[in-house]
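Model: Ready when you are.
Researcher: Fold this.
Model:
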Amino acid sequence: MKGKVNCWEHFKCGREVSPEDLSFDVCPAAKDTSFDGGNGGKNAGRMCWAVFNTKCKSKEEADEKMDEGRVTCSICSFYKLVKEQEGENFKEVKS
């Protein structure tokens, strides 16, 4: 995973799961184990666009179709980085 970072590392938001202090609001991407390993990330760390209530996806978007939600993600610097790093192995969502 050299050179690959998870979304919370890229954005430096400080919302990753921390065993020392769980008093802060942990990011849903950091907790979502269903995408663990996707695009080489920890939990949904490199597939955060598939998880609602992350830094970029609001609860309101949860009611929209997934394809419509990706429009916002397609302009995200982290989404672009992961897509470039993964190349033909890039995964939109885990199948």
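Researcher: Now this one.
Model:
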Amino acid sequence: MNTETLPEKGEFYSMIIKIDITPQTIVGDLLNAYPELEDKLIEIAPVFSKLKNPILRRTIAKVTTLKQASVVANITIAELINGLRKTANQGEIVLNEANNKNVDLPNWVSKEKIKFEYDACLDLENGIHPAGKVTKEILKLEGDDIYLLITPFIPAPLIKIVEEKGFKTFSERVGETTVYNYITKR
């Protein structure tokens, strides 16, 4: 067999497996099938420039859906999906929009009830995913104690994990690059 005519592994993968881009598409799968979409993803939502960090690329991109990514980027799912679909030569699709904007703080959120606070911004910048620390520390919550996780974006995949563990959450955008994520027991 003449290996000189075989495509590179990534090129071969993207030639064979072209996926339909939907809200349920995993970011890592998208970038494996369409490596050329990385720049478009970053253009649509600059927060995704963090995917250039190999650690975040190996961790967050493997579990984050495009729907979750739209929340992280604070853009509509239609804007994200159809921007990517256009670049990938897929037709535009109509999506029901869920509003990603802030709502009033729920009555269980009280600054006085915050017992633990973790500013994960620097860790995320250095490629350290806060999931392990957060999922361990929230187990120390008692009664109506609140865990405050500070991030530069809404950490949708982590929020999902925490909620699946039986906690309730609320995310509040308090600045252009600051989100307060409140976590408490159900």
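Researcher: Key takeaway?
Model: Confidence is low (pLDDT under 50) at residues 9-15.
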